[in-house]
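fyi for ur records
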Amino acid sequence: MEPNADKLRGLCITSLDDEDDDETELPNQPLPASTVTVAAAASGYDDGDEDEEAEVMLGFLEKPKHPGLLLRHLFPSKAGGIPAWLDPVNLPTGNSSCCGFCGEPLHFVLQIYAPIESNAAAFHRTLFMFMCPSMACLHRDQHKQWTRNQGNPRRSVRVFRCQLPRTNVFYSSEPPSRNNSDKPLCAGAALCHWCGTWKGDKICGGCKKSRYCSEKHQVHCTGALVIKMIAYR
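which gave:
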């Protein structure tokens, strides 16, 4: 991924107050996945008059004890890899899954499982963060925030929120036992063969089997296969 930690520290990309699409409620190769241990979290709204948003420590990264702990039916918090979609069927599509500047599909950064006990509709609740890997797009996002283009705001970072009630079509109403016997109640949507992140709405015109989220990822995958074939000659 192009950005590194030093470059990202200088960025300050804020949310648009009245832009609901960036935190969308849902009904490239990924980095290795790690679990996110949540140490602190904030809920609701601050009643104070401070203009600056308070910093929140989410926690720290650690390697999972077993890769199976990152599966969606165990409701993980994780960073890197591919998202464990809470709603595996109704995924973001179209422009909401792409950078508003370069048009490339966004890369998964992390997800936080943050249910709200007092809200029956949010018995399961996960926040997903995605960003464009291009520093040029991230800087353009930062520099253009002051315009507050209400008609068609373009963003290089997006956060999606998905929440489900306790009784739903995807998971058991009982908590997972975590003894390798847990299974989701149904399969999810077919994902992109290249990134494994977004819904594979496009079918390969050659093999008629592989699915892709965008034409760009189909081109990437085809190019990688050609290179691989040449290397084996």
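The longest helix spans residues 215-232. thats all i got for now
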